[in-house]
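Continuing from the previous page...

OK, I double-checked the sequence for Shikimate kinase against my notes and this is the correct one:
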Amino acid sequence: MGEGIAYAAGTVVNAISAKKGCAYALDLTVSVRAELSDSTEIHTDVEDTSLVERCVEVVGEHVGQELNFEIEVDSEIPIAMGLASSSAVSNAVVEALLKELGREPEPFEVVRLGVEASIRAGVTVTGAYDDACASYLGGLVLTLNDQHRVLDIRELPYPYAVILLPGGKVETSEVDVNRLELLAPAAETAFRRAMTGDYRGAMLINSAVYCSALGHEFEPVVEALEAGAAAAGLSGTGPAFVALCETKSDVREVSEVWSDRGEVLETRTVGPERARGAQARNRPHR
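Thanks. Re-ran it with the corrected sequence; updated structure tokens here:
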């Protein structure tokens, strides 16, 4: 039986506007078990199984066979909240399928196939290459999404994270891309900040423009910073916000100040363990 695992991802810079993204891994997981079968059966709490079906299709094309699997998907990641739940599912499913076929997946191979499945399933605007890389490789990634290119993979300096789920859902595939592309100059500025390691500044710029364009409140970001978060911002297209913290005391303070805004989750960030063994270098993946 093949098994796969991938993580949620939070946002430093959303890639929709300028096609340049910065994202980091969060310790909420999708776990997948897959076994070859006479017909494809998918066991999951999600009604729409099209993403998993596209993963089977893409992996079959990759190995040159028409395949069927029995697949079990178990996810801790809230759906349509801006936490890369789709990227995590596609990564974990692809890894499980390849392992069931007796292959030891190369990390960038998993990401590339998962992105293709996500595009075919229509669950992403850009392919979400930044989210996909963070979700599978771990750490913090800086990417050129339109080129499927990783510029850098880093250790995030903040070990703790607080996630605010204020209610409602946003399907990324339904956002107005043309409207968000108008934000490109601000997104470019945020990305330059991220490249220099100023994640706090990058998240502030990114969140200010995306909250304005998408109709989300910006106040949760300010509240988290006032409570001691090292950095905070809107994740994806929302509605989730993530605060990054240096100490458990800061986690408690942020959780308390956000408690009347919705559901609050406390977790950790994830280091780039897979990336260390993946020869993460500047190269396109077509």
